[in-house]
Amino acid sequence: MQITGFVKLDKRTKNLVKRLNPGEIAVIDHRDLDEVAAESLVEKKVLAVINADKSISGRYPNMGPSILCEAGIPIIDDVGKDIFDLLKENDKITIVDNEIYKDGVLIKRGKLLTKEVVEYKLQESRENIGEELDKFIENTLEYAKREKYFILGGVELPPTKVRFKGRHALVVVRGKDYKEDLFTIKQYITDVKPILIGVDGGADALLEFGLVPDIVIGDMDSVSDEALRKAKEIIVHAYPDGTAPGLERVQKLGLSAEVFKAPGTSEDIAMLLAFEKGADLIVAVGTHSSMIDFLEKGRKGMASTFLVRLKVGEKLIDAKGVNKLYRETFKLSYIFSIIIAALVPLGVLAYFSPPMQQLLKLLQLRIRLLIGF
Questions:
Q1: Where does the Thiamin pyrophosphokinase catalytic domain start and stop, copy by copy (predicted)?
Q2: Does a structural domain hold residue 17?
Q3: For 131, phi and psi rounded to 5 degrees?
């Protein structure tokens, strides 16, 4: 294998994909490459991926490398953090098997992840999942005890211009299959017109479908400037101590925002906000709800999510994966059904019309003459 191309580098994959162009080589620093990141790299049609870290560490069966392999995108893995010192943006390099050359000089070696290697590593990680599960459960329970005030009225809700009372709220996170799920429920959005809440990059997901978010909520690390400018309201997620790193970015854009001090994830506080403000129903798209989801986000537990879902459960509909439950498929039998359905009323009308009755009598007489009656 030999590949030559220009590189784009970033230690945060979600920032890198915003700058990537088709045919470029992505240089990342992403331990346990997750599905969403892998799919975004595939969408960008990169030539290859160079990872400074291990794409599969063995902690849990992450499917990101498999997605790249299925798309035919080579992965040069675990090349070392100094790759970011050896390369700069738009450098031209050549990859020969597991070796990286710049100006004809070998600068790094890594591990070429083939489909066989990826499958072997995944099998190893499946065998290790029990140990990881124990740690995850312990962490979740420990933090759930500390953060129970989160759902017992112990946090101050920020004011909102939009009125939730008696309306549905759609909470969109840029998680797995968010595009497919949004497409599947597009008729619901058109008919019901729910309050649209974009959690960080979820605001851009709404814009992709021609929808303007009523509220953008999050720490503002993965939402675009365009989405922030178009949103009707902005709520910055702050740590319990009031520190809000994302507020500075909003203010630099000349925009105003409310601050929501709370533990947990931004999608958790988005659901809690909708619930406490009186939404009749909360529909979630792309949210994280399983152990694998949280491990892919780099979180060691899901205490806040566990607590929030306990509280809002009666009003929560998780639309994650709904596209797999219902997929519109075109079948030839549909055509015949439509034709038959259309012909039946036409046939009835024709039968009872005087001209058609005369024609049928003539045909009947003609048949009798032909057979000798």
A1: 192-236
A2: yes
A3: -65, -40
